[in-house]
């Protein structure tokens, strides 16, 4: 078992307007604040904002793959949304993800958006609970 400080996987994902639009169609949330700069500004946002669950879902997809490769399965997760991911048309956002095996039955995943000022956390933390495959 890895020590708490050991990173077990990292990833980088691009979130652009098209990905946000497709997620909204599938998820049933086509609110214009997610894709239209004018609608976002009218709602008091500086730019369109990606769906929070899109961001969490990206991280959970990576966690699911890692768990499967390690004969584990996810039994649950929790997180707190701490900052939006702004997606300006023509300027996709870059997410950096990193997972640590903090306990035998848990991954702690950091998710940050990269900006000109550096990386800023958007979820804190995303905790994924694990069990050996078949014991859930």
Characteristics:
3 helices; 38% strand; elongated
Describe the structure.
- Pfam families: MaoC_dehydratas (PF01575).
- This is Putative beta-hydroxyacyl-[acyl-carrier-protein] dehydratase subunit.
- Belongs to the enoyl-CoA hydratase/isomerase family.
- Residues 15-102 form the MaoC-like domain.
- 26% of the residues lie in helices and 38% in strands.
- It has 136 residues and is an alpha+beta fold.
- The chain has a domain at 7-16 and 49-132: Thiol Ester Dehydrase, Chain A, CATH 3.10.129.10.
- The longest helix is centred in the middle third of the chain and has 18 residues, at 52-69.
- It is elongated.
- The model has no long low-confidence stretch (mean pLDDT 93).
């Amino acid at each position: 078992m890895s020590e708490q400080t050991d990173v077990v996987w990292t990833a980088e994902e691009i979130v652009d307007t098209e990905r946000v639009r497709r997620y909204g169609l599938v998820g049933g949330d086509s609110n214009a604040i997610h894709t239209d700069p004018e609608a976002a500004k009218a709602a008091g946002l500086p730019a369109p904002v990606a769906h929070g669950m899109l961001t969490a879902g990206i991280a959970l997809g990576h966690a699911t793959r890692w768990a499967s490769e390690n004969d584990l399965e996810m039994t649950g997760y929790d997180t707190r949304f701490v900052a939006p991911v702004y997606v300006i048309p023509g300027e996709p956002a870059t997410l950096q993800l990193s997972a640590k095996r903090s306990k035998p039955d848990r991954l702690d995943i950091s998710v940050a958006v990269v900006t000109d000022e550096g990386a800023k956390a958007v979820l804190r933390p995303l905790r994924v609970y694990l069990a050996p495959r078949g014991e859930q």
